[in-house]
Amino acid sequence: MEFESNCSLMKNTSASVAWSSKLPQGLDVEISHHPITLRCVANLIIVMERLNGGKGFALGRDESLLNFLLESAVEVLELESERTEASSRAAFSSKGEYECSVTDSENKCWVLNEGSMELHAMMLQGGSSYHKVHLNLSTYITPVPSETKARPVALGIKGSNLYLSCITSEGTPTLHLEEVADKEQLKSINHESDMVRFLFYKQDTGVDISTLESAHYRNWFISTALQQDNTKMVNMCQSATPNRFTTFTVQRHN
Question: Does this UniProt record's set of keywords contain Cytoplasm (predicted)?
Fold first, then answer.
């Protein structure tokens, strides 16, 4: 007689139950490989134990102990299964969006140079404040738990399809403005895709004070130059780079 179960015996799990049972002559067990949890295997073991009258069962006939061990194994295995599944489809998921503007530690504002399609940091006074760039800041949920409290964000120029991105130029990560025709692409970003170039980790270091680290090139931060040089574009630098500022005031407008 053949007994078939839709259970899968998983290898390399962090918990397993050792058992042995001699089946009556003529009784075979076939376990097909389907992605179902160890709970099925637990049920199969109990069925086998009952069919065999408990003879040869390594865990004995203490059903409460057996259930305890199996339940513990099931919980561990299912947790590992959830983590594996989440990792395989890991994606940054868009959560919300708000309008903001950014100034550096010298109170310089981000200004768009439309001719070169670059961002510059400049001191703005009086009637020139309208040159200040307003951003649509999109927040994301990380695909896997992280020890850091930094929040992934995407930064788009309000009223346009332009988004900040970090890509390499001559082997060095640099800040660019890229046009994104289909913004739906940014709602879910696989952690292994090149779309991660549009994401930055916003780490709050004080009241409204933040750093913006590239999610694609870790330890590279959005930065601005010294006050006396307004020709320098907003760009990427590594932490503690001389003559560059990496902390910003992100002022929310709604």
Answer: yes
Number of C-alpha atoms within 13 angstroms, CB side, residue 247?
Answer: 9
Distance of alpha carbon 254 from alpha carbon 240, whole angstroms: 32
Side-chain-facing half-sphere of 18: CA atoms under 13 Å: 1
* Three-state DSSP class for residue 117: coil
The residues, any chain, with a CB within 8 Å of residue 245's CB and separated by 6 or more, are 104, 105, 106, 223, 224, 225
The predicted model gives 30-38 an average pLDDT of 52
Which of the pair, 119 or 65, is modelled with greater confidence?
119
Q: What is the pLDDT of residue 93?
A: 92
Beta strands in 78-160 (DSSP E): 91-104, 109-113, 118-122, 135-141, 151-157
3-state SS assignment for residue 1: coil
What does the DSSP 8-state code read for residue 24? P
- pLDDT tens per residue, range 179-224: 999 999 999 999 889 999 999 999 998 877 999 999 999 999 999 9
Q: Output the six-digit token pair for 42.
A: 């637990």
* pTM, entire model: 0.65
Q: Smallest Cα–Cα separation from 200: which of 142, 252, 147? A: 142
User: With 90 as the cut, is the pLDDT of residue 247 above it?
Assistant: yes
* C-alpha distances in Å from residue 160, one per residue of 91, 94, 233, 245: 25, 19, 20, 27
